[in-house]
Design goal:
580 residues, alpha/beta, Hypothetical Protein Tm841, Chain: A,domain 3, Serine Threonine Protein Phosphatase 5, Tetratricopeptide repeat, 3 domains, seven-stranded mixed sheet, six-stranded mixed sheet
Length: 580
Amino acid sequence: MSLCNVGNSLKGLIQTYPGLQLLGDRNCIIRADNDPADSKVKLISGGGSGHEPAHVGYIGKGMLSGAVCGNIYSSPSVSAILDCMKSVAHPDGNVILIVKNYTGDRLNFGMALERAHTTMGFKNVRMLLVGEDCSIDDKNLRKSVGKRGLAGVVLVHKLLGAMAERGYGIDEIFNFGEGLIKGNFIATIGFTFKLNGDTLENIEIGKGIHGEPGVYTLETCKNFDSIIDFAITKLVNRVPKAAEIVLLVNNLGGTSEFLMTSFVNNLLDKIRPIYTIRRIYCGTFLSSLDQAGISLTVLNLAYSQRLLEYLDCDVNTPSKLFRQIPKQSLSESSVINMGSSESTLPMDISNMFTISESLGAKLVFTILCYVCEALISCTNMLNIIDKETGDGDTGTTIAKGAGAIMEQLDAGKLDLIHPGNLLQQISTILQQDMGGSSGALYSLFFQGASTVFIFPTEGTRAVSVAHWSRALAQGIDTIMKYALTEIGDRTMLDALKEGERMLTASISQQLVALDCVESFTKGCEEAARKTQQMVAKAGRAAYSSSSEMSNVYQHPDPGAHAVSIWARALFEACKQVIVE
């Protein structure tokens, strides 16, 4: 068994601490005393493993109802998030997903939220994004990534957990948390180092918890003073001087207790003249495996008079950092398996839009074949394009998704008659089998597009090109909602949005359907070509204030080019069937 096997770690956790229940085939842990039927708001968090005790260490009375664990530094699957959700709450209950602001977590938790609404009957699920990193100045932040979620998320768990335990409603809890984050009442900055004798070396300030490079670097330091001075200059940009604060000093996993307390002593000498400190928490709250480093979080008490009250509320969790109740009062932990993947409400196809079983079904079948075959044939080309600015795997990832769709199509398992159901099926296939950010984005795209056909607002159930135009727009909006990407960021959205604009214009001119599809294709192709001259505003370089990506590229954006490929295949398929 792999040393970094997540399931093995979780099984060890529940044998050490009582009061927990492991969903063994989902790598989720929930409260054993959870009652899905009670009226309390359920808080679920999670993300990649490697940050322990976050987030499983905070499950229990006064904090989280459940946590979903992905592989090391990898977002958990949509299916696991959904199963955790239905294990802690009934569809008519209230759930808040507390998510650190990283692209994979945003997309997968967002996809789970959308699917919970559409296919599982959940009526009130919210997602609270936590991003409190202050290492990067706001002027250098890109909206497509925003501030990273760091150790401050643990304070959010504690504060909202106290409110949920007291029975506050979902609106009050969610609004409290959102105001705390959006109002910059919480800020975190961290740094990593290598200890060589009594000297700190290879210092990176603003380094990410997944190993992302630091924003600022120092070669050597004899003590923590210069690091603390720099950190304080960043903190006061978010939390003004003279504020009353709570201080959380977090060990990133590989810092000795000797150095932690030395740091705290030096920190307090410098920060006490600036802030009035009402609470100090020191320990390992959110780690980065065994990274030698420390993060510093400041909570501005000006936000609410109840912050200290909520922080002081009793909890009963595996982590001892906030716990005041003896763990002996809890029942023995246990393991259950969820069995088959996410359960969904049966689709009421009688109320859905329908296309003809003759020409319509043939057209859909042909489109899927052409699109999937085109994407698979372009695997190597897309990989080469992606190597210029990415990992060189866009083609492989997209081909994997296309192959999975073809497999289901060949097996006769896709619904070619009801577009809403078909788009849902494709969304699920891509979420489960495609992987990567591309898989999450396309899964969101098809999920959003499906709602136009699943929840019809018109009397007729006949499908027109105008319906597909609205579905395209809804799919684009769903991507933008969770990816936080805008038009002009040099992504697949640039091609999709221009295609939508051209399609809408053609429909308004009352062109025939085939001409409308051709306009969509030309719009996608032209916009994809233009991305070659655009500055990239999303991706790995976005967190570094000192790095500006060049707009001199040999190739267009690989995601946008992939859109142009399948848009052309879509048109050729339509021309083949309609002309016949």
